[in-house]
């Protein structure tokens, strides 16, 4: 039979072999031939696996150090920093007794302070809104009741904060609606994906004036940057995806001391033709910076733009 130390060594050898494989995959993702490189998401996943496997080995070594009362090995680690604006909840851990073995009283001569990051999981709550009705007992002039506040979704269930959370989760954190529905169901909140989609669509309608105002402000600029990027979208009739394009119109005058705030607005179009750029830029008469794509030629009468 293997003794305990040999068993531990075998486990470490297995993990080292695992790390070597991960390192090879990481190198391939970073330095392999262009056709074999992983996309950025896969690259990040490989790195996460590598760092996680290393942490497992470090945790085992730390546990062995504690068990044998050996001093822990110092390791360089990026622990991050805790922002000053986060609320602080202080806890003081006192000794079991403040009486010395000699019978005297102990007094504080200093303290060790450590900060740990804590998180409160997302909590659902129900906002109950009541509208009392009042009537006069001396006359019959009618009933008095405060008007109901306007809602983003008339007669709907969500508050504006809930809809904002769904939008940020979907578009900023890339969390599809069906996954959000699964997360909510773990807390007993059963919401169908189509319900969330309805919230997103209604919010998009309400946010349209914001987009229009941003586009109007951008077109007042003396110079703008424009570019387009592919985006796969669903093609319900064909039951598959098709290629669409997001056109970005951006302004950033900070490098040359401009006072206009940096901003960017995206417009979706089904194609990459210059007619879409022309339509988006209606009302703009300044300098436009673009790449060498020929689709922009129609904006300047067919003369190829300067790169």
Characterization of this structure:
By secondary structure, the chain is α+β, with helices and mostly antiparallel strands. Among the domains are: 7-67; 157-208; 220-300, no CATH class. The chain contains 6 helices and 6 strands. The chain has helices at residues 4-31, 40-68, 160-172, 177-185, 193-219, 274-280, and strands spanning 134-135, 143-144, 223-235, 240-251, 263-269, 287-289. The protein is extended, with a radius of gyration of 31 Å. The termini are far apart. Residues 302-307 have low confidence and may be disordered.
Keywords for this entry:
alpha+beta; 6 helices; 13% strand; two-stranded antiparallel ribbon; extended; 307 residues
Could you provide a short overview of the structure?
By secondary structure, the chain is of the alpha+beta class.
The biggest beta sheet, please? 4 strands, mixed
Number of continuous helical runs: 6
Proportion of strand residues: 5-15%
**β-strand number:** 6
Mean pLDDT: 83
Distance between the termini: 72 Å
- The 3D shape can be described as extended
Kindly report the spatial arrangement of strands forming the biggest sheet. Answer: 5-4-3-6
Structural class: alpha+beta
Task: Write the element-wise H/E pattern from the N-terminal end onward.
Answer: HHEEHHHEEEHE
Blueprint of the fold:
Blueprint: H1 4-31, H2 40-68, E1 134-135, E2 143-144, H3 160-172, H4 177-185, H5 193-219, E3 223-235, E4 240-251, E5 263-269, H6 274-280, E6 287-289
Helix pairs in contact: 1-2, 3-5, 4-5
